[in-house]
């Protein structure tokens, strides 16, 4: 094993950080010369008071089922490895890439390799631009504390009350599903786009979700501009408003340290497919990143925001650090990983594999659709002109047909 990496610092205590530490341990154990492995220290700094937990469970477990962070915690074993220290409730306030130091809790720590895994936070609406917030009980969902507070509030409501969810993405629809499951109040989802989950899903899958919500006392209104949305909220006069309008990647520390960050809304810490940032010996993983690379000769930018992506890039970086390899060679490429997503609503699990959303040049092909099952292929022209290739699959259900469809990504559909 290389002896150049002894002090690893990880900023962030989510899924990506946890996966990285686990992958590091596996790779270092497998290295040909592991005699110095015990000299390595890994310090993990997190602003949260909880050990790493599965962030999708903030909606799916804590809000919907009343679980606690301990109930949805990730396995403790990687964090109990000798040399690993988890610093809870310890925000990092400064990074110095030249001196290779960071400041946390008033203490300066040296590092040889730094991994930024700061994640993302909810996009907050400006009260000055959304006067309908004034005097209303407005909730955002990102942490266990958010979900616990919202669950308690929803449980207080009765059929005479109303809940409004602003935002028809996956998290917004999960919040709507939870609200109608927990309480008796009718729920209204208000979305500015023309369809729910339009970035993640093909239209047929979005429509399928809308139908399931309609069956469960949830109305969905799409295509609203800001004025129409405000008017609808005033008309409904909700007891509770849940806002779920996207996430903002936490890039502040990286920006302050001079590390390259993407421009525009949703921009993240720029990394290559191996997780390297613009600064030597600094990596980034999880929801805080945007990945720049080349696929089939075309430059691409991917802004991941799902647990599978956090695990994939965390594994790639952990393997490199564990093997003492900071070149990125033979470590794998995030852009070669098949993306996966899922959401559980009303007891039905919707899964996506590959590139399920529609963009220019893609179309959807519905293979199966019923209230309990769904198979939709997202297809694009094959590079060799032989037909359409399946680039994404959206499924619901567990029948043999549904399970078989999950293996269709990459299949060429000939005319």
Give an overview in words.
This protein has 415 residues and is an alpha/beta fold. It folds into three domains: 7-121 and 248-337, FAD/NAD(P)-binding domain; 131-245, FAD/NAD(P)-binding domain (3-Layer(bba) Sandwich); 349-413, no CATH class. The chain contains nine helices and 24 strands. It has helices spanning 15-30, 57-65, 144-156, 170-182, 203-214, 226-236, 252-256, 307-322, 400-405, and strands at 7-11, 41-45, 84-87, 92-96, 101-104, 107-110, 113-116, 120-122, 138-140, 163-166, 187-190, 218-221, 240-243, 247-249, 269-271, 282-284, 289-295, 298-302, 340-345, 348-354, 363-369, 374-381, 388-396, 412-413. Strands 19, 20, 21, 22, 23 and 24 form a six-stranded antiparallel beta sheet that branches. Helix 2 packs parallel to helix 4. It is globular, with a radius of gyration of 22 Å. It starts with 6 loop residues before the first strand and ends with a strand. The model has no long low-confidence stretch (mean pLDDT 92).
Sum this structure up briefly.
This protein is an alpha/beta fold and 415 residues long. The protein is 24% helix and 27% strand. Strands 19, 20, 21, 22, 23 and 24 form a 6-stranded antiparallel β-sheet that branches.
